[in-house]
Amino acid sequence: MQDPARLITDAHDRVRDLYRPAIGRSRDELTTPTLLLDMGTLRANLELMEAGMRDVPTALRAHVKVHKSPHIARMQMEHGAVGVGCATVWEAIVMARAGITDVFVINEVVGREKTRAFALLAREADAKAAVDDAAQVAELSAAAVAAESTIGVLIDVDEGMHRSGVTSSAEALPLARRIADAPGLRFMGLTGYEGHCSLEFDETRRHAMAREAMGVLTGIADDLATDGLPCQIVSAAGTGTWGVTSRYPGVTEIQPGSYATMDGHHRGLDPRFGWAVTVLASVISRRPDRVVLDAGSKTVGASHGVLKDWDLEKYRFDEEHSIFLADDGTALATGDKVEILCNYTPFAIGYFEAYHVLEEGRVVDIWPVMPRGPESRWLLDMLESGD
Amino acid sequence: MRDPGPVIANAHERVRGFYGSAIGRSKYEVVTPALVIDRDVLLANLEYMQSRLPELHARLRGHVKNHKSPHVARLQLEHGAFGLCAATVWEAIVMVRAGADEVLIANQLVNPVKRHAAALLAREANVTVNVDDVGDAAALSAAAVAAGTTLGILVEVDTGMHRAGVDSPEEALTVGRAVQELPGLRMDGLSGYEGHTSLEMDRDRRHEKQEAAMRYFVDVADHLEANGVPCPILSAAGTATAFWTGANPRITELQLGSYAAMDDYHFLMEPRFKKATTAVVTVISRRRDRVVLDLGKKTFGSAEVGSIAAHPRIFGHEGLKPYRFDEEHATYEADETCPLKVGDVVDFHLGYTPFAVNYFDAYHVVEDGTVVDIWPILPRGPLHGGLLQLLEAGH
User: Fold this and answer.
1) CB B111 to CB A319 under 8 A?
2) Residue B36 to residue B369: CA distance in whole angstroms
3) CA nearest B113 in A: which residue?
4) How far from A305 is each of A178, A281, A299, A323, B357, CA to CA, in Å?
5) Do residues B116 and B147 touch, judged by C-beta distance below 8 A?
6) Residue A345: in which H helix or E strand, if any?
7) What does the alpha-carbon distance between residue A319 and residue B145 come to, in Å, rounded to a whole number?
8) Which residue(s) pair with B35 in the sheet?
9) Residues whose CB falls within 8 Å of the CB of residue B278, separated by 6 or more in sequence, listed in order
10) What's residue B250's pLDDT?
């Protein structure tokens, strides 16, 4: 891993300057709502995954879309990851500048400027993308040729999630050949996230579904090998299935991300990992039958959450408020701080520009969320200017 | 209205630097997903609201939490709004720096840093804050005294929304009296947003609930006034109830916001305002039985408001049934008769725009399908993003 580039250190300096008064303070002294990252829990999660990967034949590719943090990504690399997985080309640019050379956009990169950004990125990193369509192969190839770079390409396989991806060897074979023949592209293998399994909370059924999905994925890989197109990488798995998929013969790497920061959804799938990221809120109104907090849907995001240390029923989430039922027996008063355990943390993280990083209840640093939000075209300008 | 301050000009310059290469191009040539605001539709909405104001008793205080745009806020002020309304103190700071002289933070602040920020902001504009708690009022008073300013106070009344707000005329009187006596505070009246009515899609039932809420609200005001606490301001209403609540002769101001930029959720209740805010997105995968777009819940936010569907969907293909919304993908069922293919760039109905707006840096401002400007989203997200230092430094 290389040292982080200026893009990252500048972003770090910027948020540390903005939120410097919080450093050294305890959780209860912070301005709310704010995004907390507990370092002790994060480290324990990373160590648990690292230990789990020691006796399996697959490599760990840490997904970063969950946390969007160059700092957490670097820690994932220090805990056994061989590279990172990203959902967007912008995430990949940030992670490459964070010093990580192996970046894989596990998604279709479509559109002139996104493919150009990706091809430029491939000059400075081992950049890989997923495809499921011939038109996209041509677009990526043209971009790589224009940028004089080489892009690694994996075919996206739909093994039951029903999002993107090819569904058969008959579809994969001509696509793989086209990639292998396209200038500027290198055929690397297959990727097939079994995300539908992470919607199944029964472990036995989930594991059976994951095995079935891996049967489809590795079956296609076998057919490609028979046809002279061996797959160097066969990538799959999320936090809900990593235990099974990391041991499945023919799979070469797993791509989980939530294990680092966690949330309610993923703890339902694998409770060995702890809540490292929470949203700190304040009680801003205390009524006889309820408490109103200053963090709502525009802070916590679509899947809402529950309270840490307080077993209260959710009444409603509004844009800037969440409301929980609480009678006189609940010792919460106006001004009190509570932590919201998000059901799906990425939605919350997407709204914030920084984490308040805690060690044993005290803020020790501020880390940027990067890239923030859906649009980051300026990162393309940065690559083009050679900065 | 004053000229916008440097914080607005700098933010504008910054996003024009990021996305300005799109200016002059068709909106279908921008990098997707992008947030788009149609200037003509926006102006038509603002003009329609302005045209209705003379027949209403209440004045218009334009809410900004929906769009978080200093540029849209200024247009609201140019189209009949006498002041602005914000959900957070950070929004209020931005809007004062955008040139507003009047801003209501229709929310409890509670946090000491936020109270301090509101008290500092009152040096630059008439700042009003909601309270529902005597302790919070006392702390606001201390913050205002320390800053040498006066904060206007509205006692928040729960008119049926069951969020914050006092529950009874007696409690309102207790809080109102406390505010009257506290230094640095000016007891301005009551705030009673009937937000529960905006969760009622049936027009007649919504109207009944609105009337009941305002009847109670006025009763609370009567109780205070009869007991020596004048309430010159009674502030309420959202886009779904504005014309009813605005016609009530006792209500003095309306705090609606969605009317300007609009979205699918509010369009279900008030179709006289049109959708000015949409997105452009790209088809990134086309399977035999579905299309996959490059935006998901980390772009448009939730597909529901409470338990009501907000209907994020593709323009021109509104009939396509959503299959699933993931973080970075929206997947719709679409058989071979649907002409959409990989690389197609299409317009997208965002559902409930405030969730989406908060994820973005900027709007691509469009006229006749061509990008004419880039407007910043400010403040973006839940943190203050440096606004506190700005205020403290006095620039």
Assistant:
1) no
2) 10
3) A31
4) 46, 12, 11, 11, 21
5) yes
6) helix A345-349
7) 31
8) B279
9) B36, B38, B315, B347, B348, B349, B350
10) 97
- Residue B175 in contact with residue B133, Cβ under 8 Å? yes
Q: What angle do CA A224, A228, A231 make, to 5 degrees?
A: 50
A277-287 and A253-254 beta bridge pairing: unpaired
Q: What angle do CA B348, B354, B355 make, to 5 degrees?
A: 80
Interface test with chain B among A137, A287, A337, by most B beta carbons within 10 Å? A287
Rounded Cα distance between B300 and B312, Å, is: 8
Which residues of chain B register pLDDT less than 50?
none
CB A153 within 8 A of CB A119: no
Q: Of B364, B244, B198, B191, which Cα lies nearest the Cα of A319? A: B198
- What would the two tokens of residue A99 be? 């010093």
What's the whole-model pTM score?
Answer: 0.95
The two three-digit tokens of residue B287, written as one number? 């399977």
State ipTM.
0.94
- Whole-angstrom distance, CA of residue B20 vs CA of residue B32: 14
Dmax over Cα atoms in chain A, in whole Å?
71
Q: Which of B110, B303, B382 sits opposite A284 (nearest CB)?
A: B110
pLDDT of amino acid B395:
59
Nearest to B133 among A34, A113, A334 (CB): A334
- b (16+ CB within 10 A) / e for B277-297: bbbbbbbbbbbeebbbbbbbb
Residue of A nearest to B133 (CA): A285
CA distance B136 to B109: 8
B15 contact A CB<8A: no
What are the residue ranges in chain A where pLDDT is below 50? none
Residue of B nearest to A134 (CA): B342
Per residue in A27-64, pLDDT (tens digit) is 999 999 999 999 999 999 999 999 999 999 999 999 99
Q: Which residues pair with A374 in a beta bridge?
A: none
Task: Report the pLDDT value the prediction gives residue B309, as an integer from 0 to 100.
Answer: 87
Q: Out of B284, B301, B323, whose CB is closest to A302? A: B301
**Residue B98 contacts residue B76 (beta carbons within 8 Å):** no
Transcribe A87-130 into DSSP letters: SSHHHHHHHHHTT--EEEEEEE--SHHHHHHHHHHHHHSEEEEE
Cα–Cα distance measured from residue B125 to residue B118, given in angstroms and rounded to the nearest whole number: 10
> Which residue shows structure tokens 């320390």?
B146
In this predicted structure, what is the pLDDT of residue A373?
A: 86
Mean pLDDT over the full length of chain B: 96
Looking at residue A196, what DSSP letter applies? G
Question: What distance in Å separates the CA atoms of residue A386 and residue A383, rounded to the nearest whole number?
Answer: 5
Residue B346 is predicted with a pLDDT of 97
B105, B87 Cβ separation under 8 angstroms: yes
